[in-house]
Amino acid sequence: MIRFHKSQIIAFFSLAIWVLPNLVLALPSAAPADDAFERDIRPLLIQNCQKCHSDKKQQGGLRLDSRQALLKGGDTGPAIVPGNPNDSLLIQAVRHTADLKMPATKKLPDEQIAKLERWVAEGAYWPANQANTTTKADTKKHWAFQPVTNPPLPSVRDTAWPRNSIDQFILARMEAARLAPLPPAESRMLLRRVTYDLTGLPPTPEQQDQFAKDPSPEAYARVVDNLLSSRAYAEHWGRHWLDLVRYADTAGENSDHPLPHAWRYRNWVIDALQADMPYDQFIREQIAGDLLTAQSTGKEYASHIVATGYWAIARRFGHDIEKDQHLTLEDAIGTLGQGVLGLTLACARCHDHKYDPISMRDYYGLYGILASTKFSFPGCEPKQQPADLVSLISKAEQEQRLKPLDEKITKLEAQRKELAAKLDTLSGSNATKSKDSLKQLGTGVVAEGATVPLKGENLDSLPIKTGEALVLTIGPNGGYGADTTRLDWVIEEVLANGKAGRTWSLNDLLNDFHAANPHSDQLGNNNTWFLLANKGGYRLLPEKAANINSRSELLAWRLTDNPAVLINSSSQPVSVWTNLAPKSVFVHPGPDTPVAIAWRSPISANVRLRGSVTDAHPAALDGVSWKLEHQTSTLWTTELLAQTAVSKELADLDAKLNELKAEKNRVPVAFAVTEGKPADTRLHLRGDPEKPGEAVPRKNLDILGGQKVANAQNSGRLDLANWLTSPANPLTARVMVNRLWQWHMGKGVVATPSDFGTRGTLPSHPELLDHLASRFMQSGWSLKAMHRLLVLSSTYRQQAVPSDNTNLFIGHIRRRLTAEEIRDSLLAATGELDMVPGEGHPFPPESSWSFTQHGPFAADYPTNKRAVFQMQKRNRRDRFLALFDGADPNATTASREATTVPTQALYFLNDPFIRARVAGLEKKLATQPDDGSRLDLACQLLYSRNASENDTQDLADFLAAYPPMAKTQAWRGWLAVMLAANEVLYVD
Amino acid sequence: MWTNQPNRRQTLRSMVAASPLMAGILQPMLTRGESPSSDSLAPKAPHFTPRAKRVIFLFMTGGVSHVDTFDPKPKLTADVGKEVKFDHPEIKDRPGYERIFLKKPQWTFRPDPATGIEVSDLFPHVRSQMSDIALVRSMHTDHSNHYNATLGMHTGSFAFARPSIGSWLSYGLGTENSNLPSFVVIAPAQTYAGTQVYASDFLPGAHQGTLVAPGAEPVANVRPALPADQQQAQLRALEKLGRRHLANRANDPALTARIRSFQTAFGMQMAVPEAFDLTRETDNTLNLYGLGRGQTNGFGWQCLVARRLVERGVRFVELIDTGSSGNWDSHGDMMDHERLAKNVDRPIAGLLRDLKNRGMLEDTLVVWTTEFGRTPFNNTADAKGREHHNWAFSSWLAGAGVKGGTIHGATDEHGMRAQDNKVHVHDFHATILHLMGFDHERLTYRHAGRDYRLTDVSGDVVKPILA
């Protein structure tokens, strides 16, 4: 076997050009030629020639801004003769050897002349996709729009090397170029490579051991099968898909609202990949899952709904996001086009696509489909709460589920009616009986936001007997509704000497507020404080309510919502609908039901009353009225107590009813889409929704058939799902197999994986691409079958191709781990990675949201789960992901960069995360008996191999050279070195 | 972010001098011929000879009122209380804004004695520097929302995330000092649109802005976690491991680049704190910026650090004065502008003077702007605040290539609309790129099938303000 060099690769190229004439288009015009033209030739022509020879000026009748123009030439004839620099006027002119000397002012540097010469010699390649060189009719002939073929397998001389069909395509081309494959990768390297590629994690020491001990030829295939069936596989490949669909847990509008339900879609992707859902179905469910639900129930129904989260997670824009919905739809169309079809559809929002056969009509044909779709609403600054979330239970099931609940509710409500009538009678008769014994002490009105002291007769010394009561009633002021009202009330026994004796205060209520109504006092007397509603007679407030407005400090006794007695039990003010002072008692009357607090006197004595009434909700415009009365009949409280049994029964019943009603509403929801109002849309002239043009029917792209939506009563998403996944669609399968190739080998057969249009690069191996695409469809669109084909091939199993040698993919290109792989691997090495799948994030409850562009959502929720489960914000990017080239959740990402910058090195040197992993590794190794086994395990965990003699020597040298200190500390230093090594960060 | 390249030997060597140890490690690497083309931060020449080599971009968050600062409108004062009618985006359909009235500016405008240019008493120190400043009074932008307008002023895009202007310049020029980032953002808090205002988006990640938060440790992870002798011993071992790993991997440049990145990181641990260390600045200099000795916050600190960074080769330094709250967004009371102007006026003037004293204003461009202006009107004649206004605002440029003492453009008599020689955000960007040696139509990047540029599909260089 021969290892080849760059020169050989160049030889391969030039050979291939001439040897394989049917590939002439494919090879030279692949990425390198395109790049070379854009790098060397075009700028040269622009800077030196086009000022006088382009659309603005054509001196000598010559233009130098397209290949055709060069061939046509000017007054003195063609500017170039492709393949023959010496006969090309352009070359003669730039050499300054003939009469014509160009540029006239200054001769080009020799190296630039050489570049032009080479360019002409090699055929004067000009990207075939320039607008001024092609017409739209030509672009329809573009390779990617032609039907997928199933080319025959090429024959090869070395029949021993190919393991499967892929290898035959690769080897045939190598042999034609007189190249040989690289030697196979060492088995431990291969294990590391395939484990990372399939799961994003390194092989465990046990997996390494097992593989090393299994000599059978099927050992590798077995490893692959095990990896493919693991959850880790789906999590890693789910991340690839989530990159494409720019998944995030926030909406991205000005205040970056959280998406608490988006995780269901994220996990749906992972589940689908684990189950090897056929790719066509995978697409169909995401595009139109809700329309595929007719026959499904239960989990399947829910799963179909969740899948459409694909659309719902589109980015939101602006302040009031509904006003910028056209941008969200552009984002959705762009992501669909690039992700599924490899087409830059969003270019056609403002004008027909400049390079590809995609018109504005195509764009707005798809736009109409999405505009006819209702997206879940995430909330935004002017409208904080989410809306249009989609139920995960089908209508039929919902009815089925609700029927017994409704029956129970009807039954309980009948019972409730009887009890309520009974209570009405009791309280009504109590009111009648005790009417004459009720004496008013004082009354008044509290203006908006004011505090008024209690005033009235004898408040300084009021004679009262045991069992009599003082009643403080708060009602609406003049029938205008009512406010939250703070009460302060102290009752003191006046002793004979005029001094104060026993004291009662409303603050008695703060002590175990929910214990009972009537509430005890601090002196141990039960039934002292009565919390009451006046509804044709006083009755006890029956219902305990906790967590008012999601604030655990707030507790209430109430009758339905209001009237209520409410306390803030904490020593901090609580800001809800109004600011509630700490350790205070509030009442809130109902609209026509005053609320009262009565104190039943446990003594016979003279008492002094002090207190005040405060309108605690100054913004509510109307204030309250108050009344203080002395009930001199001791029967009144006795009869109130007699209500207790009925009242409690009623309260229990209400609690049951509330629970049943809550159960009715307790429907799991998804952030997803449903059908909206189906309608065609008008073109937005120059992309401006304010400038409507002609109406466009909802339709497929012309290049894919141009069919209209079959039934105008539907949005057309189901049609779209079918168009996308039709076996006749030339793009969907090709784009996906190219991605699989890219994610395994490091570079796609088409090097621009999300652009298969005329501006994208041409496939380097067109037959291979079609072979893969047709095989993919034949396999029932099985991703796992394609993974197997790829990773079991001899092509994949070669030694790694250096990372700079990406001009020619002939195997697995050495790559740096992605941000997620780095983090997960280091946590895995120390045993700290939590492999339990993540679900939702601990976002604050929706009711509390008040995010603004001044104070956007900005929380972090650190976790040791796999990185795919980390919460991702759109407007506040994660620092670690940004540092190591993570995907930007604002736009579709087809391939990760791998930049190398010193701030990454600083991270490895000094960041607390790395320091903690070093400490974790040290702890993990502590159980090993000696240095040798410690080193072995460290090598297995970090490098996926056993320690070699070199490692032992390196360690010894390190310890010897390290500043003198305790051995454990020196070891920690060594582990920091190992953890930062290239061998950890790169996969061969 | 920044990478290191062997063709930038000088900077590396100067750093190496500080550490005899590193010389031994670096020397063999420096002599190896490694292709610089893989380094997106290698210094690159612009399209034509630039007037400016670096930019200090001062961004005032929240929307500075033009009619109260740089755009005197006597007619507005004269017509105060007059009802006006406009289909203004900010108040359209807003309850309580059915009727609107002109509102008087609250600060006196005075001419700068040298140039006669009138600036209000909010900026007395900047006023005294007008001979170095070209003032644009006819700025306008596309959006009246903070988020969109802020994104637009930074990226030329008012909705979608795109590379920041600092990223574009880093992409176009690379960096002069591999020990420091090419693009630094110094901000006490995130502004509107968060990290997007300094993100590189589709440009290589090396061009994203490095965020510096004022304080004792402004850049993450530059403080060595270990004593120097331990760290050096570790780096030596890491180098050895790296070289061995490299040996049978055909000198893969990605691997060598990462080995080198540790050496640069080691250097940065010294270079970065040195750049932020103000102890060697004289009292006079500190005074210029209104800075107390030992102080590590405030806009004066930001300005002085900016000067030190550009001195050390950073291409683009952006200073953001406040975060997304408590800023110039004076809806409630315009008097709040006083506090905000006081925070920046003297430091900005100090920065201009300091750059000039050092001869650095010759090739340093200083840009002052905000996301939009504020309405010359409100819903009552005596309303205390002003609303968002994207039809007109003022910005200025100073220093390299800029014709000082000029006023460009004008708004109408009430400061309502940019009227003469209007300058859109794209024109403003085109001008900055021009001063840096770029044709804004040719500084492009191919992404998703399209050649993107900072100025989208428009933008004209504002030639009258060029020296």
Give me a quick take on this structure.
The complex is a heterodimer of chains A (988) and B (467). With 988 residues, chain A is α+β, with helices and mostly antiparallel strands. Helices cover 39% and strands 12% of the residues of chain A.
Helix content of chain B: 25-40%
Q: What is the number of strand segments of chain A?
A: 25
Low-confidence stretches of chain B: 1-38
* Whole-number total of structural domains of chain B: 1
Distance between the termini of chain B: 32 Å
CATH architecture of chain B, by name, is 3-Layer(aba) Sandwich
Major β-sheet profile of chain B: 9 strands, mixed
Q: Which term fits the overall shape of chain A?
A: elongated
CATH class call of chain B: Alpha Beta
- The rough form of chain B would be described as globular
**Beta-strand share of residues of chain B:** 15-25%
pLDDT averaged residue by residue of chain A: 89
| CATH-derived topology of chain B | Alkaline Phosphatase, subunit A
Radius of gyration of chain A: 39 Å
Could you give the count of β-strands of chain B? 20
- Give the mean pLDDT of chain B: 88
Strand proportion of chain A, as a percent range, falls in: 5-15%
Briefly note the structural class of the backbone of chain B.
alpha/beta
The most extensive interface between chains reads: A-B, 78 and 75 residues
